[in-house]
Write a structure and sequence with these properties.
Elements (H helix, E strand, L loop, with lengths): L19 H11 L2 H14 L3 H13 L8 H24 L1 H20 L4 H29 L3 H32 L4 H4 L1 H12 L16 H24 L4 H23 L7 H5 L1 H31 L4 H26 L6 H18 L9 H29 L7 H37 L5 H27 L16
Helix pairs in contact: 2-6, 2-7, 2-9, 3-7, 4-5, 4-6, 4-10, 4-17, 5-6, 5-9, 6-17, 7-14, 7-16, 10-11, 10-17, 13-14, 13-15, 13-16, 13-17, 13-18, 14-16, 15-16, 15-18, 17-18
């Protein structure tokens, strides 16, 4: 099947048009969309890492067992990843602005519930609720940006800021989690979401309203159940692979079951009259390229964040706060890459000229760290800073460009689905990267310790980290090779009429 061509990000997407007088009236107001959506993006990304730092304190306070404590992380990942496609459909049906507000209020309420938890079950339930509302919030926010900013220069600036927040959110989560846990309480790692969400809600009061997509038909119930079960099984398998190993029967069963459910979901969507995820969204060549590149980027980068945290704390002896502050170098580089570089060029140059160099820069940053040894001197200036700068610049460039490419030239009735597919790609990449690269590092360290008679635990750990980072380097090079032929763009064609 031949996919239609796509115009470069920054070109005006297919949205409902308004009269010019109304557009002039709304011009100042539409910029309020950016801080509101950025705050929501910060919430969603922040909560992927901020609780990790607080987990030991929460475990002690609530009496969690070692076997159950992972559910404070897994409950959020499961509901978020499993319900994203449904959230995209809900966003289109209710209206992106209305869904966005509901997601913010629900996320704030569930965060407050988690902060007030008196037992493990209450915390796990609150984390699951956070994931439910995040699954509506994330695609609604990206859809609002797509439909609000249509001018190429404005669109580039908006997506640059959005990408900077997304790229920096994980590092900020580690820093904020460490500071709040050390100087306040682990509960504030959840309470902090409430004022951020409420400020974003206040900002939406002046965000231009959009209209729900009419004529969408009934909810694709079969597709909704299959997508939730399939994505949930795959994300859960990735989370379980870290403690149990990839050879575990439980992990294998979850992976096989998840893949079969997703295959059944694809078969249902092809035949559904009103599909949850129209296949035209995925079969579009350039859009598929953006999804492949962001997925593989997140696979590599979330493994990178994990090893940076481990290495700085276990080998260099940094405190959790110091380790998080080190990662701020990466966050600042991502800010520069997404706003000053890619944001300014967005819509002016072909997407390939932004995405491919971004992937290469991130790969180069990981390659720097593969040269580390336990005897390496001047580690911070000679290894960590160059690696953090290069990966940050690459991540900022890739997120900005792929977010625009994934939602460019999308008809109004498909914007929610395209936004949800983009967010789902990020979630799958993050979950797979953390589990896969951690398993590789652990196995390489154990093998090195067993085979090298003179090996020390520190030497084995560093060997494991560098081995996994070399795999991350290979994943990013593979992303370049897979993405390059997909994201070549030509002249745009108007969106095909709704079937």
């Amino acid at each position: 099947m031949n996919s239609p061509d796509i115009k470069p990000p920054g070109a005006e997407p297919a949205v409902e048009t308004h009269n010019s007088e109304g557009d002039r009236t709304r011009a100042p107001r539409r910029w309020w969309t950016l801080p509101a959506v950025s705050a929501a993006q910060l919430l969603v990304v922040l909560d992927g890492t901020i609780v990790n730092i607080a987990l030991p304190s929460a475990q002690s306070a609530l009496g969690m067992s070692d076997a159950s404590r992972q559910w404070a992380i897994t409950a959020y990942a499961l509901t978020f990843g499993g319900l994203l496609l449904i959230g995209g459909r809900v966003s289109g049906a209710l209206g992106h602005r209305r869904t966005f507000i509901i997601g913010l209020v629900g996320f704030a309420a569930s965060s407050a519930l988690g902060g007030a938890a008196v037992n493990p079950g209450m915390l796990f339930g609150a984390r699951a609720l956070q994931g439910v509302f995040a699954a509506a919030l994330a695609p609604a926010g990206l859809s609002l940006l797509t439909t609000t900013f249509t001018d190429p220069r404005e669109r580039g600036r908006a997506f640059g800021v959005f990408a900077a927040v997304g790229a920096a959110g994980s590092a900020l989560g580690l820093v904020t989690g460490g500071l709040l846990t050390e100087y306040a309480s682990w509960r504030w790692c959840l309470y902090i979401n409430v004022p951020i969400a409420l400020c974003a809600v206040l900002g939406t009061a002046v965000v231009p309203a959009d209209r729900p997509i009419r004529g969408g038909g009934r909810l694709d119930v079969a597709g909704a159940l299959l997508s939730a079960a399939g994505f949930g099984a795959v994300v859960y398998a990735f989370n379980e692979a870290e403690p149990l190993g990839w050879g575990s029967p439980k992990v294998s069963a979850l992976l096989v079951g998840g893949v079969l459910l997703l295959a059944a979901f694809a078969a249902v969507e092809v035949r559904a009259q009103h599909p949850l995820l129209p296949m035209r969204v995925l079969l579009h060549r350039a859009r598929a390229g953006s999804l492949v590149s962001i997925t593989l980027m997140f696979v590599a980068m979330f493994g990178f964040y994990l090893f940076m945290s481990y290495y700085t704390q276990t080998v260099l002896g940094y405190s959790p706060v110091q380790a998080g502050l080190t990662l701020l170098i990466n966050a600042l580089a991502a800010l520069l890459g997404s706003t000053l570089l890619t944001g300014r060029l967005h819509g002016r140059v072909p997407p390939a000229m932004l995405i491919l160099p971004g992937l290469v820069a991130a790969a180069a940053g990981m390659l720097v760290l593969t040269r580390l040894t336990p005897q390496s001197a001047h580690v911070l200036p000679l290894y960590l800073v160059p690696a953090l700068v290069l990966t940050g610049l690459g991540l900022g460039s890739v997120i900005t460009s792929t977010a625009g490419l994934a939602t460019a030239d999308v008809a109004p009735y498909d914007i929610g689905a395209a936004s949800a597919a983009y967010n789902a790609s990020q979630q799958l990449g993050a979950a797979l990267g953390t589990a896969l690269l951690n398993t590789i590092a652990t196995s390489a360290a154990a093998s090195y310790l067993a085979s090298e008679g003179h090996a020390t635990p520190t030497g084995a750990s560093v060997h494991g980290y560098t081995t996994a980072l070399m795999v991350g380097f290979g994943i990013l090079l593979a992303a370049v090779c897979l993405t390059a032929p997909l994201i070549r763009t030509r002249a745009a064609r108007p969106p095909s009429p709704r079937p």
